[in-house]
């Protein structure tokens, strides 16, 4: 299965924040949408980075209360690991495992944002794929015998 199939099912909407949004606003956005990360996007649609719950916790642990005065632009992870709609679920899972990340922006070949997938999206797709394969095998065995 490829990432594009997951986006067709879940949609391509990506929750984002502006680089000048503060931590309080970011955490409200995360809680409101029940998600673990948001992309930081400039007004023109340029993706600048990503802010995850993990980024906020690390900043709080290292900087304390001053974290609450930070902006998304200051807090974000600037190095983005991405996949394309043609990437396989297994490739994306491997990247997440190797990089110890839980969210991957999906970029088209021209760099246009196509969506975002989480570890949960990928695990759900992998389980559905395994269940489908098991049903096919059961059907084959039942008709072959």
Summarize this structure as a short list of keywords or feature phrases.
two-stranded antiparallel ribbon, three-stranded mixed β-sheet, alpha+beta, 145 residues, CBS-domain, 6 helices
Tell me what the structure shows.
With 145 residues, the protein is of the alpha+beta class. The mean pLDDT is 94. It has helices spanning 3-10, 23-33, 53-63, 72-75, 89-99, 119-144, and strands at residues 16-17, 37-41, 47-52, 103-107, 113-118. The protein has one domain (3-144): CBS-domain. The two termini are 29 Å apart. The chain is built from 6 helices and 5 strands, in the order αβαββαααββα.
Offer a quick outline of the entry.
By secondary structure, this protein is an alpha+beta fold. It has a single domain (3-144), classed as CBS-domain, CATH 3.10.580.10.
């Amino acid at each position: 299965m490829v990432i594009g199939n997951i986006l067709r099912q879940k949609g391509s909407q990506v929750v984002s924040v502006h680089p000048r949004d503060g931590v309080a606003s970011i955490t409200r956005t995360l809680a409101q949408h029940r998600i673990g990360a948001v992309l930081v996007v400039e007004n023109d649609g340029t993706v600048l980075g990503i802010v995850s719950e993990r980024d906020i916790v690390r900043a709080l642990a290292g900087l304390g209360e001053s974290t609450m005065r930070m902006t998304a632009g200051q807090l974000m992870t600037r190095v983005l690991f991405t996949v394309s709609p043609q990437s396989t679920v297994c490739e994306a899972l491997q990247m997440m495992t190797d990089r110890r990340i839980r969210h991957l922006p999906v970029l088209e070949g021209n760099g246009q944002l196509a969506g975002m997938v989480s570890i949960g999206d990928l695990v759900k797709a992998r389980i559905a794929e395994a269940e489908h394969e098991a049903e096919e095998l059961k059907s084959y065995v039942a008709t072959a015998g």
